[in-house]
Amino acid sequence: MSDCVFCNIVNKVLASNILLETEDLIVINDILPKAPVHMLIIPKKHILSINHLEPEDAELGGKLLEAAKEMAKRQGISESGYRLVFNVGKDGGQVIPHLHLHLLGGKKFTD
Hints:
Layout: H1 5-10, E1 18-21, E2 25-29, E3 37-43, H2 58-74, E4 82-85, E5 101-105
Antiparallel strand pairs: 1-2, 2-3, 3-5, 4-5
C-alpha cells in the first residue's frame, strides 16, 4: 500500500533506523516514545489490525512475539519486565492502519 507509512518503511521508501529485520518483520523505535524503551515490531505483510488476521497469519503472530522477546533481551529489560501492546482500531488507540506490536520498558509501569 503506497500510502501506508509502515509499508513505505518496510520497502525502504521512507528512511528509518531499522533495529532488526527478518524475512517477515522489522523493528524500529517509536518516534513518540511513551517509555525509555519503546519499539514497534511491524510485520512486512500489510495487515490492518488484529481484527484482520487470517488463520494463515498465526505463525507471523508468533514471530512478532519472538522478536519482542529478543529485543527486550538486547535492551536489557527482559529480567526487569516490559509491556507488549497491540492497539486495535481508532477507539483502541491505533493511529497507523497496519498491524504493529509496541514493546515498552525501561521503567516501572503502575497502571
